[in-house]
Structure formats: structure tokens, C-alpha cells
Amino acid sequence: MIQFSAVYVLWTREMIKYLRAKSRVVGAIAMPAFMLIFLGLGFRRVEVPGLPGSIGYFQYLVPGIIGMTLLFTSSYSGMSVIMDRQFGFLKEVMVTPASRESIVLGMIVGGATTSIIQSLLMMILSVFIGFEIPAMHLIAASILVMFLITVIFISVGLILSSFMKDFHGFNTIINFIVFPLFLLSGALFPVANLPAVIQVFSYLDPLTYGVDALRGILIGYSQFSVVFDLLILIPVSIAMVIVSSYSFRRSEAV
Question: Fewest C-beta in 10 Å: which of 9, 38, 142, 233?
Fold first, then answer.
């Protein structure tokens, strides 16, 4: 049973942590900002195979960098679970009457909110560099896609943190997961440019559909229809929440 008061308390805690850790905000958007500036400006006049002439590389790149921000920020949120376990906060939460599902949902909603805020900051930065900002209703629609992407990858972080006890191990494993997912997603170049064998792995990557949906909404160009992307993202996000809740309950018994 979901207890919304527990979800709200954990969400509020995550917001307070986020607002107090200004270095975290800067650190999380620094790398995507560098990639946006150097790749976007450096290759803006390059004709990328597979792109229509009406779509410049910078316009194509911005949704990919937003996807990158969501992927990295969300996946590394599992680190805070390990910190909470080491400093005893997680044990204190576990002895409350809050259900495990409520605890997991509170962590996911809190992490999703901070990830979306950072992605919107990236979108604002891209406007100053030359990105043509879409209408407000399209930005609102893109936030829904951002939420689905963050739910998937926060769940990945929670699943890993359920079984891992130290920062170094988590860091190693999560890096091994997120970098291939990012490169396979088509965030930097069209998936169709990859060899056919590698394209198979791209189409197994949920970020591929997230980035594609963001492009469809923000710049009006996508490989698949936005509806098709959502039909992939919604069931995958629900399944990942279920698996992360199960993993969280299992980790308590270990």
C-alpha cells in the first residue's frame, strides 16, 4: 500500500539536500554543458549522414544532451541510498510504519524531480547558445518523457544499491552500465549510422526511445513516432519500479 505522507517526506528531504548542495548542481550539469558547447558549436556546420538538411546538428544534439543529463543524474542517485545505509538513515526509515513501496516511490519521485530540474537548466543554457525553444505545451510534454526516463534509470540505481554496500563498487558498475547506454542511444548521432549488429543493442536500450521522443517533441524530428516511444517507455518504467521495489525488500532481509 502506498502511503503518500511517507512519499512526500522523502521527496521533501531530497529537495532540501538538493538545494543545500550547490556544488552537486554545478557538478551534475558541468559535463553535459561542456559536451553541448564543444560538440554543438564545433560540429554545427557539419552535415551528419542520416539527418535531413532542415535539421542542424546543434538542434539534433540538444535533446541528446538532455537525455544524457537525465541518464547520469538518475543512475547515480543510487549512491545516496548507499550513503544513507552507511550513516544509519536508511535503518531509521526502515523501522517506521512506512511501506517499502512508499519508501522506494519517495526516493524515485525525489530523484526524478532533481533530474528534471537539471535537465531544464540544460535546456535553458542551450537556448543561450542557439537552440530554438519550442512552445510551452511542448516543453510540458517533454517533461513527461523526462519523468519516464528518470524513473527507469533511478530504478536501475536503486536495484544496484540494494545489493552493493560500498561507493567504489557502485561507481565502477554504474559507469560500466551508463556509458554504453548513452553511446548506444543515438544521443550524439543517428542510430541508423551504426552497424546493423550494434543497432540491435541500441533498440534494446530504453534511452534510445527516450531521446527519440524528446527529439520528436522538441524539434519535430524523430526516428519513431512519439506514441511508439511512449508505448515502450511506460511499460518499461512500470516494470523497473516493480523490480526495484522487490530488490529493496530483498536487500532488507540480507
Answer: 38
pTM for the whole structure: 0.89
DSSP letter (8 states) at residue 193: G
Question: Within 10 Å of residue 75's Cβ, how many Cβ atoms?
Answer: 27
Nearest to 85 by CA among 136, 158, 4: 158
Average pLDDT, the chain: 86
From first CA to last CA, the distance across the chain in angstroms is 23
Distance CA 130, CA 23 (A): 26
Per-residue model confidence as pLDDT tens digits over 216-229: 999 988 899 999 99
- For 169-210, what is each residue's pLDDT tens digit? 788 888 888 999 999 998 998 988 888 999 999 999 999 999
223 vs 191: CA distance, rounded Å = 9
Cell numbers at 164, concatenated: 552493493
Of 9-18, 40-49, 114-123, the least confident: 40-49
For 221, left (φ over 0), alpha (ψ -120 to 50), or beta?
A: beta
Q: Cα separation of 251 and 164, whole Å?
A: 9
Asked if 77 and 111 count as a contact pair (C-beta separation under 8 A), the reply is: yes
Q: What does each C-alpha distance from 38 to 32, 33, 119, 210, 215 come to in angstroms?
A: 10, 9, 18, 23, 20
